[in-house]
Design goal:
The structure is a single chain. Helix 3 (96-106) packs across helix 4. A 6-stranded mixed β-sheet has the order 6-7-8-3-9-10, sandwiched between helices. The chain has a 4-stranded antiparallel β-sheet with strand order 2-1-4-5. By secondary structure, the protein is α/β, with parallel strands linked by helices. The protein is built from 8 helices and 10 strands. The chain has helices at residues 45-52, 74-79, 96-106, 111-124, 140-151, 170-184, 220-226, 232-241, and strands at 5-16, 19-30, 34-39, 60-65, 68-69, 81-84, 158-162, 189-194, 205-210, 213-218. The chain has a single domain (32-44, 81-241), classed as Rossmann fold, CATH 3.40.50.300.
């Protein structure tokens, strides 16, 4: 594995019976890169991500994440990445403070480190005043940023975000992307799936999946130039028509 890459994938495939959900995809993600994994719902994005984070075994092909084999070293992969699911993975009946403590324990942090991270996250997100209120009472944008912070409670170098802005309004989406930029500036690699094509503009590079295959992969500017398009939505529509 090239030491400059955080993720390397070659011919990665996932079949369910006769159905091929992910069809021999190959790509690399550089360390510190914001990599967008785009495609319509059902294109295979989440299935591919589950293989990358060690939750699903590939049918064929290989992949390495943080230097670990996603098939043979899935547990090491899980310990060395952050992951935020579509549902945000928070416990609504617990408070922000309790959620941080719970996940800190899941990731094996010491009691002192959990206390430090709890104070740090609550202060950074300006949640001190609602630290002891149930998460269910928080606005959606706060829940989203809290889930993102908790996914990094163990200080991973790579963070996987699965449709993190689904179901939130455009203002909250922009706020969340500002948070992603702040995290990327710390040197972390961000791998984000989305079906919002305008969010591709926020990424260093993007791949676009269509029915299980990566049909395009480059910077947003180069893709727009290649497909003679003004927006990433236009690029996507042209790919689907092909």
């Amino acid at each position: 594995m090239d030491k400059r890459n955080a993720i390397e994938v070659e011919g990665l495939t996932k079949r369910f019976g006769d159905f091929t959900a992910v069809d021999a995809i190959s790509f690399q993600v550089a360390k510190g890169e914001i990599f967008g994994f785009l495609g319509a719902n059902g294109a295979g994005k989440t299935t591919a991500m589950k293989m990358l984070i060690g939750l699903s075994r590939p049918t064929e092909g290989m992949g390495k994440v943080a230097g670990f084999d996603i098939d043979k070293e899935a547990e090491q992969v899980k310990r060395n990445i952050g992951y935020m699911s579509q549902k945000f993975s928070l416990y609504d009946d617990l408070t922000p403070k309790e959620n941080v403590r719970f996940y800190g324990g899941v990731y094996g942090l010491s009691k002192n480190r959990i206390k430090e991270k709890t104070r740090e996250i609550l202060k950074e997100l300006h949640l001190e005043e609602v630290a002891n209120k149930p998460v269910v009472a928080l606005p959606l944008g706060w829940k989203q940023r809290l889930a993102f912070a908790i996914s990094m409670v163990h200080d991973p170098d790579i963070v996987f975000l699965d449709e993190p802005t689904g179901g939130v309004d455009p203002y909250v989406r922009r706020q969340f992307w500002e948070t992603i930029y702040q995290v990327a500036e710390q040197g972390r690699t961000i791998f984000v799936t989305t079906h919002y094509m305008d969010e591709a503009e926020y990424c260093d590079r993007v791949s676009i999946m269509v029915t299980g295959k990566i049909e395009a992969l480059d910077t947003p500017e180069k893709l727009k130039e290649e497909y003679n398009a003004n927006t990433m939505d236009e690029v996507f529509l042209k790919l689907v028509r092909y």
